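YM 10:42: Myb/SANT-like domain-containing protein sequence, as discussed on the call
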Amino acid sequence: MDDALIDAFYQQNVIGNKIDGTFTAKACNEVVKELCEKLGMDVNKDRVKNRLKTIKTHFNECFDLFNYGLSGFSWSPITKLWSVKPEVWKSLIEAKPKTRKWRTTPINHYDKLCEMFAKDRATSAAHGDGDHPVSDTTREELLEIIIGVGGGSSPAPAPEPLCPPPPPPPYRFESKRIELAFRVIQKFKKRITCDPNGITKTWVGPDVCNKYMGFSCAMVPDYKVKALAAVNFNRFNFSGPDLTLDGFIDELEDISIFHANSNNFTGTIPKTITKLRYFYELDLSNNNLDGKFPNDVLSATNLTFLDLRFNSFAGLVPPQVFTLDLDVLFINDNNFLQTLPDNLGSTPAIYLTLANNKFVGPIPGSIGQASKTLREVLFLNNFLSGCLPCEIGLLKEATVLDVGHNQLTGPIPHSFACLAKMELLNLAQNQFYGPVPEMVCNIPSLMNFSLSYNYFTEVGPICRKLIEKKVLDVKMNCILNLPMQRSAADCHAFFSKPKYCSNVKSLNWIPCSMDNVHNNSQEPSDRKSATTPRSYDALIPHRL
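YM 10:58: structure's back
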C-alpha cells in the first residue's frame, strides 16, 4: 500500500494540492478514490492520513539524522538503503546505537518524500518547531564521528547532499498541467534511441509550449489554465526497442490531437486511452502496430478523425466502428479479413478508405444510409464479390467511388445515374458485364470513369464521347468495334458460365428524377477539372 500511497500523494503535490505544508482535503479525497477505484484497496480517509503521518515520521527521522547530521551517507534508489563505507557506519553506530536500524531498514521513495516534505522540515527547523530535528551539538558530534575527530576513526569522504536542490534557476512552468506533461515527455524521451531529425534536442527546459518541437498547447476548459493540447510527430521517424504508446499518449491527459504518421511505434493502443476527455483526432498511420483492431478506441467517443492505415492490424473490424461520430475513417493497408459489416452505412464519415485489406463478400446495401454525408469511399484492392447494391445510387454527396481490383460482378445499376456529384468512378479490374448505361455517362460532373479489364459489351453515343475525351476508359472489355479489347475466346469463356445477381429488378431502379440530376449536363469539353480527392492521399504512407 505504501508505494501506491506515496505515488498518489506525490501526484497531488505536483498538481498543487499541498498548501502551506499540508495536503488539502481535496488531495486526500482524490488519493482515497484512486486507491479504491484503480487499485482495489479498501481504505478510507482516516486510514490514509494516519499512514501518511507514519511515513512522514520515518522520513523526518532519516532526514534529521542524515541531512542535518552532515553525513557522507547517500540513499540508494535500488536498495532503498543508506550507504557509506563500513568503517563510517561502525563509528556512527558506536556513538549513536539508535542509528543501527537504518543500516538494514529500507525507506522507499525517499526521493519523492524529499520533494514533498524536505522543504517543510527545513522550515520547521528554522522556526524551532516540528519533531525535534537534530540539535547543533548532536550535529557537531556526528560530524566529528564521520570525519574521524571525536570518534577516533579514519577520515571519511567529504559529505554529499542527499536531496540536492533543483538546478538553478529552478524550472518555472506556465501551469501545473504543463509540468505534468513535462514529466511525461521527459520519461518518454528516454525510450527514443533513434531520432534522425534531432527533434528531441529541443525537449529541454520548462518551455514546453514554445520550444518543444512536436507539441503545442491551449487552454483546458476544466482547469482554465494552459495545458499540452496536441502532439504532432508526423514523419519524425522515431524508433527504439521500447517505443510503445503505453505510458505516453494515455498519460497526456489534456491532449485533443495525437498525430504520429511515419514513426516506428510498436504494440497496440493502450486501453487507458479512454480516459482522455478532450481527444478527437488520432493518427497512428504508417507505424508497426499489430494485433487485433484496437477496440478501446470505441470508447473514445469524441473522436472525429481516426487513421490506422499502413500498420499490421488483423482480424475483424468491429461493427461499432461504423457508429463512431467520425468525419474521417482510414483503415486501409492492414490485414483485416472479413465480410463488410451490415451496418457499414451507419457511418457518418465523409471520407472512408477500406482499401488494400482482405475484405470479402458483397458491399452491403446499407451504404445508402450514408447518403447525406459520405463523399469519398475507397474499396479497391480487396476480395469483394457479388453484385453492386443499387443503394449506392442514393449517395447524393459522393464525389469518389472506387471498387477497383476486386471480384465484383453484374451490370452497373441504373441508380448510379443519380450520383449527381460523382467525379471519379472506378469499377476497373472486376467481372462486370452488360451494356454501359448511357444515363451514367451523362453525369455532369464525371471526370474520370474507369471500366477497364471487365466484360462490358456495349457503349452508346454519350459514352463514346467520354471515350474520345479520355474521361471513360473501356480497354480490355468485350465491346465490338473498339480497340484494345479482350479476345473473342476470353469473352466467350466468361459468358459461357452462368451469371447471377440476387435482385435483378433493382438494377433498373432509379431513385431520383433524371431532369433534376442532369438538367445542367455538360459536354465533355465543357467540364471543369475534378477536385483532388483527399482519400487517395491515404493510399500513400507519408501523405496527409
